[in-house]
Design goal:
3-stranded antiparallel sheet, 2 domains, single chain, about 5% strand, about 55% helix, about 325 residues, mainly alpha, DNA polymerase, domain 1, hpI Integrase, Chain A, 13 helices
Length: about 325
């Protein structure tokens, strides 16, 4: 349990009801649950002070209080993304209170924070991805990796690029979740929603080699219930370790080291669209609930469209 915020929303019955609803009905992750409560606590602190005691007078909140919260966040220099997230937390909380007939109006329903400028995701080109994925092979040949590290890292990064998975989705995969015949994997994404992802031939081959090695060296770690990707101590790998391994190979391949494993997801989407994949299919593979979220990758592919236009249009 994280440190309790001030005011102590964990002791407030309505906040507790909201927390229960988030877990039971929305199936949010632990980080999301804590984030909602911390955002609510920050609002309560600004409106009633840090020493306010439960039960808190949520019914008394007016539109002016919501605007005051937004003004304080802006004055404190909160980023656009942070402001939007906190407003969404309070908006969702008050919708919950409306459903319970605690309040009639939602003071956050019409409040909109600053707009976040659409940014084009930074990606690796197909050639850069090839250089990156080739680096563990070079390191193993130069004897700077153990066989287990080599097989794991190759399988791990091939998996990420092949499926477009988020890092948390990938490290949660167990051997029994892989369909070896058709290369299908069911992963659990945001909101604990399951979706189908596809393994390419290179990723499937790398996984098969990793499992064969584990079966010979540590048979219990090749069972269907065992995690696929393990750290050097043979426990479930952490996102932090995956990031460190990626930065190592990026540096050795003379590629930008500020790229994260999530950039392989961006690269996956961009390369599919560049090759003519249907936008809705890419949306399904990424697990985006809204097509507009996926459309940002079409901006990355605009160069391909411009090239095609210049080559094909008679008056280009």
């Amino acid at each position: 349990m994280p440190a309790k915020p001030n005011p102590d929303v964990y002791g407030d019955p309505l906040a507790k009801s909201f927390e229960t609803w988030l877990v039971a009905e929305r199936s949010v992750t632990e980080n999301t649950r804590v984030g909602y409560l911390m955002d609510i606590a920050q609002f309560a602190s600004i409106i009633w002070g840090e020493d306010a005691q439960a039960p808190l007078p949520w019914k008394d909140i007016q539109d002016s209080d919501a605007r005051r919260f937004l003004a304080v966040l802006s004055k404190d220099g909160a980023s656009v993304a942070t402001v939007q997230r906190k407003l969404a937390s309070l908006r969702t909380f008050y919708r919950h209170l409306q459903r319970r007939n605690i309040v009639i109006d939602n003071p956050f329903s019409m409040l909109r924070g600053p707009r976040k400028a659409k940014t084009v995701p930074r990606t690796l080109s197909p050639q850069e991805v090839e250089r990156f994925l080739a680096q563990p092979h070079k390191d193993f040949q130069e004897k700077t990796l153990s066989r287990m590290q080599y097989l794991r890292d190759v399988a791990m990064f091939e998996f990420l690029y092949s499926t477009g998975c988020r890092i948390g989705e990938a490290i949660a995969v167990k051997w029994g979740m892989i369909g070896w015949r058709d290369g299908r994997v069911i992963v659990t994404g945001k909101g604990r929603k399951d979706r189908l992802v596809i393994l390419g031939s290179k990723a499937l081959d790398a996984l098969q080699k990793l499992r064969k090695f584990m079966a010979a060296e540590h048979p219990e770690l090749a069972d269907d219930v065992a995690y696929v990707f393990l750290g050097d101590r043979l426990v479930k790998i952490t996102a932090r370790l995956v990031e460190r391994r990626m930065k190592r190979y990026l540096a050795e391949a003379e590629l930008p080291t500020d790229l994260s494993p999530h950039k392989l997801r961006h690269s996956f989407a961009t390369h599919l669209l560049d090759a003519g994949a249907d936008l809705r299919s890419v949306q399904e593979m990424l697990g985006h609930s809204s097509l507009s979220t996926t459309q940002v990758y079409t901006h990355v592919s605009i160069g391909r469209l411009q090239d095609a236009y210049r080559l094909a249009h008679p008056r280009a």
